[in-house]
Amino acid sequence: MVQSKREVLAVVGKGGTGKTTLVAIMAKVLVATRKVKLLVVDADPPVSLTYALGAKPVNTIGEIRRKLIEDPQEKRRIGDKHIRDVILDEAIIDSNGISLIVMGRAEGPGCFCSINELLRFGIGSLSKRFDITLIDCEAGIEQVNRRVIKAINTLVMISDATIRGIQTAAYLRKIAQDYGVQKPHRTVLVINKTKKETEQIKEKAQEMGLKIFGFIPEDENIIRYDLIGKPIIDLPDTSPSVIAVREILKNLGLMT
Question: How far separated are the first and last CA of the chain, in Å rounded?
């Protein structure tokens, strides 16, 4: 069971830290409760999350954008329709009990409304129709800088178990506080691919004012699934990463 209020949660971090895997496992655990209306947003152009959820990247935001730019008939057809309704009618993919939005290809020239603007306005409206919204952000700080994820409740920063990773997380938090995310929101840290919960990492996070909400151990199942292209959402419930993410969701108040 999840908390009653609507939650919009964005996962950010530098490339390779495991953002997509974390969001996919969160979605797996949450949808398994069968008591949550879940929206997942693949906001990273490579669409890795889409494949991790066992879906195909059809009807992407990027494709909608391209049609609106290149096809006058398509633009007339959509007319004054709110972007929320455009996404609801044409861009949401139903996959394994999850409502999925895929951003698709990166921005290009000649755009009257960028993908990130479509996401920002669309997510702000759409999230009100779901209990929980999970956003897999692109690597780095661009979507924070552009305030694409400004209307969120929780910013989850994911880091590997290195001091440099912790420093990057602290920088992302500062950017979010100074430029991107509306207040009030909470900022939490998840350490991924750990061999053990090192005191050095805990001390560095505390020194930088970061609260660690969980550690995800290295998981041979994830390595094997990635090698053979099997969706992460199919991980067994007994997998170490799934057990760890379930505890993180409890710490976040999204499960009891």
Answer: 6
Nearest to 248 by CA among 188, 208, 167, 186: 188
Nearest-angstrom CA–CA distance, 216 and 171:
21
Compute the C-alpha angle 207/210/213, nearest 5°: 130
Least confident of 6-10, 41-45, 64-68, 90-94: 64-68
The DSSP code for 176 is I
Task: Report the C-alpha dihedral over residues 100, 103, 105, 108, rounded to 10 degrees.
Answer: 160
What pTM did the predictor assign? 0.85
- Hey, how many other C-beta atoms are within 10 angstroms of the C-beta on 131? 18
pLDDT score of 105: 65
Distance between CA atoms of 256 and 254, rounded to whole angstroms?
A: 7
Residues 176-185 have pLDDT tens digits of 777 656 655 7
Q: Which two structure tokens, joined as six digits, stand for 19?
A: 């953002």
Place of tokens 């954008």: 65
CA proximity to 49, closest of 97, 15, 100, 7: 100
Q: Which helix (H) or strand (E) holds 40?
A: strand 38-42
For residue 42, CA distances in Å to 19, 85, 175 come to 11, 18, 21
Cis peptide preceding 231, ω within 30 of 0: no
DSSP code of residue 99: E
Instruction: Tell me the β-bridge partners of 118.
Output: none
Q: What is the pLDDT of residues 189-208, one digit of tens each?
A: 999 988 876 788 888 899 98
Q: What residue spans define the domains of the chain? A: 7-155+175-197+206-238
Fold of the 7-155+175-197+206-238 domain: Rossmann fold (3.40.50)
